[in-house]
Amino acid sequence: MAVVNIHEAKTHLSRLLERVEAGEEITIARAGKPVADLVPHSRVDVIFGGLRGRLTYDADHFDDVDPEVNELFGLR
After folding, report:
1. CA 23 → CA 1, 28, 34, 38, distances in Å?
2. What PANTHER family has UniProt attached to this entry (predicted)?
3. Strand, helix or coil for residue 13
4. DSSP code of 2?
5. d(Cα 14, Cα 20) in Å, to the nearest integer?
6. Where do the domains of the chain lie?
7. Whole-model pTM above 0.70?
């Protein structure tokens, strides 16, 4: 993992980001002490309906009232 000081990071941010995009991890340091890490962003795409058919529930009992839960919330 490469370590760069803050001045170098400010001066060469675009180049450092290119290296990070290529998969490298870079630590930014102040006076030799690590302050922050530049790491590649890992995007997770959300797929709507991805669990369709894999989850079920009993519609007849879905809205049942639980007296214990109501008691915890001060509902009677």
Report:
1. 11, 16, 19, 10
2. ANTITOXIN VAPB49-RELATED-RELATED
3. helix
4. E
5. 10
6. 2-38
7. no
State how far the Cα of 32 lies from the Cα of 56, in Å rounded to an integer.
Answer: 55
| H or E stretch at 70 | helix 67-72
pLDDT tens, residue by residue, 43-56: 888 889 888 888 88
Quick: pLDDT tens for 58-71.
Answer: 777 767 778 888 88
| Euclidean distance between CA atoms 73 and 66, whole angstroms | 11
The helix or strand, by DSSP H or E, that contains position 28, with its residue range, turns out to be: strand 26-30
Residues 6+ apart with CB under 8 A from 25: 1, 2, 37, 38, 39, 40
* Locus of tokens 């102040």: 30
